[in-house]
Every structure is written in C-alpha cells, then in structure tokens.
Specification:
binds 2'-O-acetyl adenosine-5-diphosphoribose, three-stranded antiparallel β-sheet, about 240 residues, Rossmann fold
Length: about 240
C-alpha cells in the first residue's frame, strides 16, 4: 500500500524544484514488461548454466562470445518494449523545464523514445553497436536479428556499446552525470538496487535536501534518503 502522505510530499517537492535529476535502473523497465536483474523474478535469479552476472563480463564476452550473444539477445534486447508512465512523466517534467537530466543504468533507449532529451546512459546503449575491426556503426536490429556472433561486412565482430563488468564507463558520460547531480535541487533515485558501482556511488555528489528513493523493495541505502516510497515508480510518478 503506497503512503498517500509520502506521495503528497513528493508532489510538493517536485512542484517547488526547478533542477530535478532522475537516477534510475532496471526497475524503471518492469512496468514496460521487462524483467529487472535482482528482484525475486529478475534475470540474475534464473537457473542459467553460467552465473548470469559473469555472462555480462568482458572476460566472458571474450572467451564465450557466442554464448554471450545468446544471453544478450534473450535478456538485454527488448524489440517490442514501449516506454511506460515513468518514462513519459520524466519527459514531461523536462519539457516543463523542471527536470534537467535523466541518468540511467538501462541500455534500452526508452527514455529518449518517450521524449527525454538529456539522458546519460551510464551503461551504454543496445541501440549502438560497432565493429571492433573497422569501427562501422550497426543498429539494434543488425545485432538482434543476426545469428550467433554478429559479423560486420569486413569480418569483424560487432560489439554492442554496452558497458560490461570489467569495462570502464565513458568519461564524458560520467562527467555529465556527476555535474547534473551536483547541481540538482532535487534527486529522484528509482528502480535500482544501488549495488553496482561506480554508478551507485554517483548519488553521493548530491548535496541538497530533496533526496528521494522510489523503489519496489528496500535497499541497503534507504536510510540515506530523506523520503523513501516503496512502490512502483511509474504508478507513483503519475500521481504527482
Ligand atoms: P536491479 O535489478 O539490481 O534492481 C532493480 C530494483 O528495482 C530492485 O530493487 C527492485 O525492487 C526495483 N523495482 C523493480 N520494479 C520496480 C518498479 N516498477 N518501481 C520501482 N522499483 C522497482 O537493477 P539495477 O540496479 O539497474 O549492469 O542494476 C544495476 C546494473 O546491474 C545494471 O545496469 C546491469 C546489472 O548488472 C550491467 O549490465 C553492466
């Protein structure tokens, strides 16, 4: 049961803020029918022949490239997914000039599809793919529709521009995200277990008094937030 008092407080905070930043994760996708990673029914809880978290590592990608792509196409590609009410509400707040940036750990491009313009994709995007040999760009469909290891015309492997474990985040994206958080008058964190670094650590750059967490389950960081609402982010944001 969502606390109406908390939602009312959130509404007031949004209404009195003009430099809102949103920081989200896979929980933002579940209302679009996509599984997150660490919920009870999440991708990492599945019985898979390799520990799922290691499948998304650079080492696994290098050593078992074909199996990486099987997993990737099955669990990280969502050709039919559509933005949900969370995506649309954030795009609307940006249009009103109240929200300055969305920072996401997701790789699906749904924030942009909903209309958000300033989106920092900490873990890259499945919509961008590059040949490791000649650098040619390939779109989502090229990788999604190919069989086995996607291959460029030049013979090189086409690698998604998605940050795997053991790989670094893009420095311009980090800089943009950290600056946005540091300058924000309100930070809404939602749909993330806040367990994956460095991404989860970026919220410490926020120094204001309007720090909100909207998450279905509790996280280990709940105590760091001034306002915590346990519930679905799309449902809650659309009440504000
Ligand atoms: P997680 O799966 O770790 O956490 C998702 C959180 O969202 C959980 O705490 C859920 O309770 C919550 N949640 C689910 N549905 C929700 C909803 N409708 N509204 C609000 N909360 C909801 O996902 P992330 O924190 O994004 O990295 O995971 C971080 C990274 O781990 C991912 O970017 C990915 C993964 O390994 C890479 O692939 C590099």
């Amino acid at each position: 049961m969502i606390s109406q008092t908390s939602v009312q407080r959130l509404k007031e905070m949004i209404s009195s803020s003009n430099n809102i930043v949103f920081f989200g994760g896979a929980g933002v996708l579940t209302e679009s029918g996509i599984k997150d990673f660490r919920s009870a029914d999440g991708i990492y809880m599945m019985d898979y022949k390799y520990p799922p978290e290691s499948v998304l590592s650079h080492t696994f990608y290098t050593k078992h490239t074909e199996e990486f792509f099987d997993f990737y196409r099955k669990y990280l590609c969502f050709p039919d997914a559509k933005p949900n009410s969370a995506h649309y509400k954030l795009a609307e707040l940006e249009k009103q000039g109240k929200l300055k940036a969305v920072i996401t750990q997701n790789v699906d491009g749904l924030h942009q599809r909903a209309g958000s313009k300033c989106v920092y994709e900490l873990h890259g995007s499945a919509l961008r793919n590059y040949c490791v040999k000649c650098g040619k760009f390939h779109d989502f469909d090229f990788v999604y529709r190919s069989q086995g290891i996607p291959e460029c015309e030049c013979g090189g492997t086409v690698k998604p521009d998605v940050v795997l474990y053991e790989e670094s985040l893009d420095s311009d994206v980090i800089e943009g995200a950290v600056n946005a958080i540091a300058n924000a008058d309100m930070l809404i964190v939602a749909g993330t277990s806040l367990t994956v670094y460095p991404a989860a650590g970026f919220i410490r750059y926020y120094s204001g008094n309007n720090l909100v967490l909207i998450n279905k389950d509790s996280t280990e960081k709940d105590d760091d937030f001034g306002l915590v609402i346990h519930g679905k982010v799309g449902e809650i944001l659309s009440k504000t």
